[in-house]
Amino acid sequence: MARRALDPGVSIGGYVVEHQLGAGGSGQVYLVRDGAGLPAALKRVDAQHDEVAAERLRREVRALMAIRHPAVPRVRDAELDDDETFVVFEFIEGESLAVEVAQRGPLVGEDLAFCAERIAGALEAAHAAGLVHRDVTPSNVMMSPDGAVLIDFGLSHRADDDRLTREGLVSGTSGYVAPEVIDGAEPGAVADRWSWAATVAYAMTGEAPFGTGNSAIRRTLQGKWKVPDIPGADVLAAALDRDLEARPGMRDVIAALRGATTVVPHESLSVTTVMDAAPHSSSGTAVLPVDAGWTEDDADGSDAWDDADSLEGATRDDFDQFLLSPSDEVVEDVELSARRPFLVAAWAIAASAGAMLAPVVAAAAITTAALVARTVYTRSEAIRQARARRGERRLDAVLHTVGVPWHVVRALVELLPSLIAATAIGVGASALGWWLVSSGAVATDAREAQAWGHAVALAVGALVFVGALWWGLWSFRTREGAYRVTEALAPTTGVSAAWIVVALIVAGSAAVAVYVGAEPWWWPLPQMPQTVGP
Questions:
Q1: Is the dihedral of CA 194, 199, 200, 204 positive or negative?
Q2: DSSP 47
Q3: 400 and 11 in contact (C-beta within 8 Å)?
Q4: Which domains does the chain have, with CATH numbers?
Q5: Which residues are catalytic?
Q6: How buried is residue 104: exposed, middle or buried, by Cβ count under 10 Å (0-12/13-18/19+)?
Q7: Fewer Cβ close by (within 10 Å): the C or N end of the chain?
Q8: Structure confidence by residue, pLDDT tens digits, 238-254
Q9: Per-residue pLDDT reduced to its tens digit, 276-291
């Protein structure tokens, strides 16, 4: 849990706080002034109570110490003692790319190409140092007077680093996580380049190419981006393709944005590649290898630290102890549930078939299933958000299990608008079908035809009810919760197939019951007129 925020005018480590720039679950970021009155950005966390924040701090510092590039902020100072834990960075004057575009509109022409080139250069420097950023987004790009600057290396890691996310979780910002990472691949330089392309697409259009939030996950996997009629957009779309081999390089995209390329078909693939692209080098980049010995002098011979005395004789290993966490507000641990669409469809059919025999009971069962699905989603999201704010704790699952009644109440309240709309649509569909059958418009007056007609009307109404709950008003949480339930009930394809067989048996049994003459059971409603013909 982060410490209490610092008030303006408070001094910390020789820096005077002006105001808070931002805050996350593990700490705060402040604009401060040093002894000479120069501005700096100070990140402060309570790393002693947040091991994940401490490790992410260590990685961020290691990352920034390994890179010398004008589009990457430099570390100026750091302090760790019993009272305070903070790191001071070069202050980047300006707004984030997200804010810049939201306030002033998309970037065009050379402004867009130059922004893309600056971020690409920062990534090239990071990758040359053996680092992967893993969270390239418009919120992590600052638009300084000198150009774009890539910030927040808190999720960056080297190939030999341990992962900080639990199994089944993806670290990053939804809508900017590469599809192969969503599919389970280890984040790497290729994934960074995809995130870069998504960020450039935002700068180009003013919108995230695949949207935001959890719904962006499925859009990313579908790979459908409405390509705008802007020079270079078709090449940028190719850089967002799911096929890794079909993606052009960052410098190819930049050249296309400047109109210096020719786009040709990529053999048999329905994507593009770029010819006559600019070279893949980045001027003005000096990279300090991660494994190289570190001294107080940086690559250009200037002092790397404003407070050299406090770090006299320090080495790279010494500096690894300084702890800092990234700003958490733009970082999401997106929990991905296995998609079991055939299993869901099979049980929707089974429930609809059950409505032929007991329509009210079937509707109650469908409603209960929707409520359970929404409760599961609400509980899991509460746990995820708690861990995002405070880190993973052993009692999280226990506390939120004890709080299940609250999650049920919340899920029910959230479900009500969707439930009311779905009930009206489903009952209307059943009533219309029942009337068409009874009036003889779609069935004869024969007993068997009337029985089957009314049964089908009830089944269709139930299926419409399920569809309205699944795709209707405020239905996302119901769908996602249902996928999580099916993931728990059917963790493998074999188990899923077994559940599908059971669902088909249930549906078949209901059909057999109608065939032998079973009448609908309307409990707890009054018995409806018998579906008997002459």
A1: positive
A2: G
A3: no
A4: 1-91 (3.30.200.20), 95-158+169-275 (1.10.510.10), 337-515 (no CATH)
A5: 135
A6: exposed
A7: C
A8: 999 988 888 999 999 99
A9: 433 333 333 333 333 3
